[in-house]
Every structure is written in structure tokens, then in C-alpha cells.
Amino acid sequence: MPMIRLFRNFFLFLSLTLFVVLLNVRADAQSVSPAGIANAVLVSESGRAMRLSDLRGKVVFVNFWGSWCTPCLQEMASIRNLQAAFRGRNDIVFVFISARSQEVQKDGAWLREHGVSGENYRTEGGNPGVTVPTTYILDRSGAVAQFRNTAVDWQLHTDFVRNLLPGTARG
Questions:
Q1: Rounded Cα gap, residues 155 and 81, in angstroms
Q2: DSSP string, 47-93
Q3: Domain-by-domain residue ranges, the chain?
Q4: Greater pLDDT, 169 or 13
Q5: Torsion-angle region of 17 (φ positive above 0: left; ψ -120 to 50: alpha; else: beta)
Q6: Strand, coil or helix: what is 121?
Q7: What pTM does this model have?
Q8: What is the mean pLDDT of the segment spanning 60-70?
């Protein structure tokens, strides 16, 4: 009988904890869908607003992340290496979006401290309401060319990205 009570209490605790976490994550969420990603309003650390659609004509690597997210941090080295593969090109842009809008400054500082290029943003309407890490790669027309909602070794996708750029087989 004590084992059943222990299991029941553990299950109740786990359920309540999950409910509270989900409530906190979604409380001010503005869900960003693949279809709406290009028109989402982003605000930089300095307060400058922009839309990803403003970057049409370029390949755009968009990463929703947080400096508190272990899988996000695990994939950052491969993102930095992907950036190195395209260094000096002005037809590809790396955009980072904080999953917790209140941590945009902290996340931006982490990127700079660890040598990751690109500006850090928050979504205008609060937290974006996506699991992290989530990454979209937009082609030059602004269409979603690739979508991942898990940590990825982005070095393995170098050729995919290269083929989206001008002067290549698909570009």
C-alpha cells in the first residue's frame, strides 16, 4: 500500500509540475508557424523592428533558442561552423530569436561571448510559443526550405544551404 501511495503522489506531483511549466511557457505566447514566420515582427536588442520578409533575396537561417536550453547550446558550435563556411557572403543571414523574450539581452550576450555571428531578436508579441531549438531556413524567395524542431549538427547541412545560394546548382 505505501508503494501505491508513493507512486500516486509522484504522478500527481509530476502532472502538476508539467501543468505549471506549460502554463508559464504559453502564458504570453504568440505562436509562430512555418507559414507565418516571414511576417513575424522581430525586435532587436537595440529596439529596432523588422520582419524576416525584409530579408527576401537572401537565404535566412532562423534559430529560436535560449541560453538556458541545453540542446540549443549543444548545436551552437555547429551553427558557428556553418557560419564559417559562408563567411564573407552577403547573401546569407543568421537570425537568432530568444524563446523567452525577457532574456533577449542575456541571450545576445551569450552569442557574442561564444563567437556566434548574427543579431539576437525577440518576437514583438512576447514569447514565440515554439519548442526550442527550432530552426527555419528560408530560401531567397522567403519560402521555408527546411524546418527542424530539435538540435541538429548544422555542419551536415552545409551543402543544402550552399545549394540555396546564387551561383549554385539550385541557386
A1: 6
A2: S-EEEGGGGTTSEEEEEEE-TT-HHHHHHHHHHHHHHHHTTT-SSEE
A3: 1-30, 32-162
A4: 169
A5: alpha
A6: strand
A7: 0.79
A8: 96
Name which of 133, 15, 154 is nearest 68 in CA terms.
133
Assigned CATH for 32-162: 3.40.30.10
Grid cell for residue 132: 526550442
Q: How confident is the model at residue 20 (pLDDT cuts 50, 70, 90)?
A: very low
Q: How far is CA 58 from CA 44, 116, 140, 165, in A?
A: 19, 19, 5, 8
Confidence of residue 15 (pLDDT cuts 50, 70, 90): very low
Contact 137, 146 (CB under 8 A): yes
11 pLDDT above the threshold of 50? no
Q: Please, where are the H alpha helices in the chain? A: 2-26, 70-85, 104-113, 158-162
- Predicted confidence (pLDDT) at residue 21 exceeds the cutoff of 50: no
Amino acid at 94: F
